[in-house]
Structures are given as C-alpha cells and as structure tokens.
Amino acid sequence: MTDFEGLKALVTGGASGIGRATADLLAARGADVAVLDLDPGGVGIPQRAYAADVRDDASVREAVASAAADLGGLDVLVNNAGIGAQGTVEDNDDAQWHTVLDVNVLGVVRTTRAALPHLRGSAHAAIVNTCSIAATAGLPQRALYSASKGAVLSLTLAMAADHVHEGVRVNCVNPGTVDTPWVSRLLDAAPDPAAERAALRARQPTGRLVTADEVAAAIAYLASPLSGATTGTALAVDGGMQGL
Ligand code: NAD
C-alpha cells in the first residue's frame, strides 16, 4: 500500500512498541518518517531519529523544527510517547503525578504546539494521539494513568474542534493491553512472569494481547487521507475489553 506516498510524518515515542510499529508501517506505506524519542538509537533507515524529551519544551521545539526542515514539511503527527503508573490515589505522591502528567498530557500539548504551524501548510494534516481504554474503563490500580489518558481523550476532542477549520484533523486510538516492551517489563517484574502473562491473556476476551502492529494499523488509518472525514473520534483497539 502506498496511501502515504509524499506525506511526511513525525512519531513521538517511536523507538519502541506501538510507536516503533507505527513508524515502520507509515514508512512501508510510503511516508517519509521521523521519530522523536528520549533515546532514538537503533531506529533504522529510512526513519530519521531526533532525541528529545517531551517534558522539555525547548528540546521538543528544536526536534520538531529539525524534523519538519529535514522532511520538507509535516502532514502527520502521532503523539504516542507515554509512561505508565500503577496504584490508587493513595499510592502515588505529588511528584509521581507531576511526572506522569508532564509526559502523558503536557507532552502531547508541547509536541502539538510545535507541530501545528507546519501541519497548517499540509493538504492532509492529521494528528493521532495514543490514548488508552484506561481513559473511560475505570480500571483498578490505575488512578494516575487513567487520569492522564482521560486528559488526552478530552484534549483530542478539544483540539479537533479548534483546528477542524484549519484543515487539521485530530483523533485518538484507545488500545487495550498491548504486547510491547512496556508490558513485558511489568510482567518480568512479577514473581512468576509466565503465570502472570497467562493470567493477563486469560483476562482478554480474545484470549490474547493486542499486537503493536494492530494499534499501528488503526493509527495509520486515522492518519491517512482514507479517514479524511473523521475528526474528534476515539478508535478502540482493545480486543473487546471495553465492551465488558
Ligand atoms: P514503550 O515503553 O514500549 O514505548 C514508549 C516510548 O516512549 C519509548 O521509546 C520511550 O523512550 C518513549 N518515551 C517515554 N517517555 C518519553 C519522553 N519523556 N520523551 C520522549 N519519549 C519518551 O510503550 P508502549 O507500550 O509502546 O506505549 C506507547 C503508548 O501507548 C503510550 O502512550 C502508552 O500510554 C500507550 N498505551 C500502551 C498500552 C500497552 O498495553 N502497551 C495500552 C494503552 C495505551
């Protein structure tokens, strides 16, 4: 497929997991792809890699400007960089709240702010945010993470309304439990990782975890001109979790 031929895309958190699968898929479909990540080492040709921390406005501005200059413009922004947190409201202190909201919420704001002047020049401008079913599902032990993704969902709707008249579409994906290095790290920290993985699989209606490629495919759809009439939506990629 070459539905991204001639389009230029920037993927944050593109060095691992969902972001990496998305960068690879967009490149395979013909896009010129740039990756912004804390440590983009290992991201191969044809992707361009820019080291930046989405907590640091100056580093985001610099990376986005460099990516747009090197690519010759920007049509697609995938706001995917994110970190997790476990626990109830009693378990996370203020410092943890500030850190997670800084990455997951303000990270989206900073990258979008830096990218919008470039996106406005595109005939196919699209922003896709990686949200989560945690935004709406009321998951136990995820108070901080859920609040951060709830904010990403609200931001998606607000940004879609603000920028629709400028020709910039804004949507998000709501993944369920996705088999990425992040989830592997969590499972590996359990006393019995194999048993924990089996229990996690058993909790999925499909009996398996979602793959990063499946989330990437949904992101690619929302980023592509094929979804040109769609803005302000959240697409669940959760193996049926939300329906439970
Ligand atoms: P991952 O840890 O495999 O990849 C995340 C990437 O983001 C890493 O490359 C990391 O270096 C980068 N990153 C983290 N903090 C950053 C920062 N401050 N600045 C720049 N880059 C930063 O994780 P993943 O599972 O692929 O998650 C990607 C996104 O998907 C996140 O937003 C996460 O909340 C969301 N998500 C994941 C799952 C899941 O089950 N894995 C489910 C729902 C939503």
TrEMBL record:
One of its GO terms (molecular function) is oxidoreductase activity. InterPro entries: NAD(P)-bd_dom_sf, Sc_DH/Rdtase_CS, SDR_DHRS6-like, SDR_fam. It is an enzyme of class 1 (oxidoreductase). Its EC number is 1.-.-.-. Pfam families: adh_short_C2. Signal peptide: none annotated. Belongs to the short-chain dehydrogenases/reductases (SDR) family. This is SDR family oxidoreductase. It comes from Streptomyces huasconensis. The lineage of its organism: Bacteria, Bacillati, Actinomycetota, Actinomycetes, Kitasatosporales.
